[in-house]
């Protein structure tokens, strides 16, 4: 067992060496709204370019609605969400007796905002102490990086954080988490191999002893079809509950936006197996498939706690439906 400690009263152990303070990053030059718009560039450019051609003139007819259906599907919104949006736009166009196709753009923007709004449910960590969060997802989704960014987010709110390196199957994952722990100046509970459930158990007990606010438990990445591995992560959850009766207080599924509709399948599979309470959608800056948020909202509306649009530590922020949709449609 070995750990990193930040220099605070919760980790005053003279027997353990202290990490150097993380390097100071250059302050972001853009505010969050601007970075969100910048991060959605690929999705927005594809989406708004098609909408501009669609709503640029002509008349509202069946041909227009068929083309709109194609645009929504191309943006990876999925069949169910696309049909829901089309019906809403049709109904409003009829009710308001719209004749100009340009008016449909505003109707579509409002309909999209309403569709994804139920996903906007910010994470409240004030209900338990320590607040235990299990992080799950497939390999490559950005799970460990998201843990590092979440640590920074909670620290910015004045909360103390402890990390559990529960991905004992991949040595690189443990080392990566330790790097994030050192960078943020927080404790990382880890083992050389061993049982991931035991790491989680030790981390929760350590958090209690040190009066830590938030515990982030990393887990091994796995595909939802790997049933034996899914059983192992269920064991981790049971042991977490054994360590703290009300925990885990949150099971966060990390999704890579680049996977598009496959992300919807992951939500369903992990939710069925573990009872997912929240989502993190990463790498929105690297894909044109940001419309998958609409697909998730329609098929399995698990709260979207955070979205990631960049590489900086503070590029992971709470999901706000109106901000996201405005950034998607703002083509100026």
Describe this structure in words.
Helix content is 47%, strand content 11%. Helix 2 packs antiparallel against helix 3, helix 4 crosses helix 5 (102-116) and helix 4 (79-95) packs across helix 11 (292-299). It has twelve helices and eight strands. An eight-stranded mixed beta sheet has the order 3-2-4-1-5-6-7-8, sandwiched between helices. By secondary structure, the chain is α/β, with parallel strands linked by helices.
SSE layout:
Layout: H1 32-39, H2 41-54, H3 62-74, H4 79-95, H5 102-116, E1 131-136, H6 143-156, E2 161-164, H7 171-184, E3 187-189, H8 196-210, E4 214-217, H9 227-243, E5 250-256, H10 262-274, E6 278-282, H11 292-299, E7 304-308, E8 316-318, H12 321-329
Parallel strand pairs: 1-4, 1-5, 2-3, 2-4, 5-6, 6-7
Antiparallel strand pairs: 7-8
User: How far is the first residue's CA from the last residue's CA?
Assistant: 54 Å
The CATH C-level class name of the largest domain: Alpha Beta
- Report on the biggest sheet: 8 strands, mixed
Total of domains:
2
Give the assembly state of these chains.
single chain
**What do we call the CATH homologous superfamily of the largest domain?**
P-loop containing nucleotide triphosphate hydrolases
Rg? 22 Å
Overall helicity: 40-55%
Going by CATH, the architecture of the largest domain would be 3-Layer(aba) Sandwich
> In which order are the strands of the major sheet placed?
3-2-4-1-5-6-7-8
How does the helix and strand content classify structurally?
A: alpha/beta
Low-confidence stretches: 1-28
How many DSSP-defined strands? Answer: 8
Summarize model confidence as the mean pLDDT: 86
- Under CATH, the topology of the largest domain is which? Rossmann fold
Enzyme class: hydrolase
GO molecular function, one term: GTPase activity
Subcellular location: Cell membrane; Cytoplasm
Main location: membrane
